[in-house]
Amino acid sequence: YHVRSVDKYYGVPVVLHSDHCAKNLLPWFDGMLEADKVFYEKFGEPLFSSHMLDLSEEPDEENIAICVKYFTEMAKMKIWLEMEIGITGG
Which positions are catalytic? Predict the structure, then answer.
């Protein structure tokens, strides 16, 4: 909430992004989306600008299905979704 409360004083767009949420952290991700919904209902914009789901360890079909489910809800608040698909890492 702090960044959103002071961003108006800087005169530049502020983008808040969550990064690399794996499948075992989806309950945490759900909590962030709930915070986005509450903030959106109160201020007309989401708390976060974008989120990333890193389901690269999951089968592609499951990864895409989960991302579609979340993006359907996120799009209502104009939140971007970054998804990680396939093998990543070094």
Answer: 19
